[in-house]
Amino acid sequence: MIHKTLINDAKKVLNANFQEAGFTIPSKGLYPFQWKWDSGFIAIGLSYYNIAKAKLEVETLLNAQWNNGFIPHIIFHKENDSYFPGADFHCSELHPLSSKKHKSTGMTQPPITGFVLKEMYRIAEDKEDMLQFIQKHIDKVYENHLYFYTNRDPFNEGLMYIYHNWESGTDNSPVWDDIWKTMDPPEYAFERKDTTHVNASQRPSKREYDYYLHLIEIAKKHKYDDEKIAKISPFLVQDPLFNAMLIKSNEALIELYDLLGGEGAKKLVIQQWQQKSKKGFKKLFDAELGAYIHYDLRNKRPIRHITSSSFSPLFAGIPDVEKAKILTTTMLEKFGGEDKYLCASFDPTNDKFNPKKYWRGPVWINMNWMLYYGLKRYDYKELADRIKKDSIELIDRDGFFEYFDCRKENGEPNRTGYGGGNFSWSAALIIDLLKN
Ligand code: GLC
């Protein structure tokens, strides 16, 4: 019964956030545009009850693709001054191959569109119709992966770099803190908008925003040229989450091309990428920590912190069974105490853990969703079920928020979730978990 109500409420959230231009905003006020990976998660939820809207969501995103295959992290379909930094700050038109139709940022986000197409196929009742849709769009996703392998892997390791923390999707993770120490940006004067929507204690600091803006200024100075960025950006990181998403999407593209038939050459290319990336991924495993970690390419050092991203390779089938076992042990030991909901975004046993602050501790539903399927893939059914149960309980208890306190009792008499309310991917993915 509670499930039925939750599904209906989730649909209401998604319907209210839908925009006429053919996409869904993540959260009113706080995030008034189309975000790349949000759109993918949203399309999965929409597929359960409005396949036309799910297709439109993906189509609208892909329409903003640049001529070099790049897909930006935010598409500014319509002006809106409730968000900073907007289109005028990012100036995507600086890049010679950027979209002429759409203003956007000049950075990207985790490449999930490939596996989203596969999820849509799994969920769709009319498989034939969905295959036609996929046929129409799959090459764009292939071009996007080609962009990555051509431009984001300067040492040919099969591991893509990100040049901005916003490309990771995990904006203010403590993982970046040591990189900030290597930079000394000016104190920019600007008007924060996020803290007019959300309590500042749940958002990044002003100084952190200086770093974020500075990285964009550097990229802009070089017209978002990938080669230059790889050479000079103070932030250049191989992120296990970003790369696991690419591998998961590669896998989906191979399966979808198989279903469609007749694209043998492309399939072969993806298979080669896949082999290289899976091999390269070994670099990111830290045996002592028992987890996958980030690697700072600019300063040539591993970043030895455990985050929810550390476990995301399970979703892409990357670890062998032995490593998968190690990952689950680490998860249970560090993140899985009886007093906690799984899965905190940052190691709760680390001093930098903060249960309220965005990616420095709270639980995120998109990460839980991936971990649920990842654990199932390796037959950790009990742990998978716990993550699913925790996700449902959190949303039922705290509302459709952006992120959640992992402490079952946090001492607050009027407990709620944190960050933006009526948050689209929390709604979309809970539909999937409940229907599954
Ligand atoms: C925040 C999140 C990012 C998400 C965006 C829109 O910036 O860190 O992952 O895509 O909000 O929801």
Description of the molecule:
It is built from 17 helices and ten strands. The chain is mostly helical and 436 residues long. It has one domain: Glycosyltransferase, CATH 1.50.10.10. The strands form four sheets. The protein has a four-stranded antiparallel β-sheet with strand order 5-6-9-10. A two-stranded antiparallel sheet has the order 1-2. The longest helix is centred in the N-terminal third of the chain and has 25 residues. The radius of gyration is 20 Å and the shape is globular. It starts with a helix and ends with a helix.
What is the name of the CATH topology? Answer: Glycosyltransferase
Secondary-structure element order, as H and E? HEEEHHEHHHEHHHHHEHHEEEEHHHH
- The DSSP helix count reads 17
Number of domains: 1
SSE-based structural type? mainly alpha
Main sheet summary:
4 strands, antiparallel
Radius of gyration: 20 Å
Which parts are unreliable, with pLDDT below 50 for 5 consecutive residues or more? none
Distance between the termini: 15 Å
What is the helix fraction of residues, given as a range? 40-55%
- Ions, cofactors, ligands: which are bound? alpha-D-glucopyranose
By CATH reckoning, the class would read Mainly Alpha
Brief digest:
This protein is mostly helical. The protein is built from 17 helices and ten strands. It has one domain (2-79, 111-160, 244-293, 304-435): Glycosyltransferase (Alpha/alpha barrel).
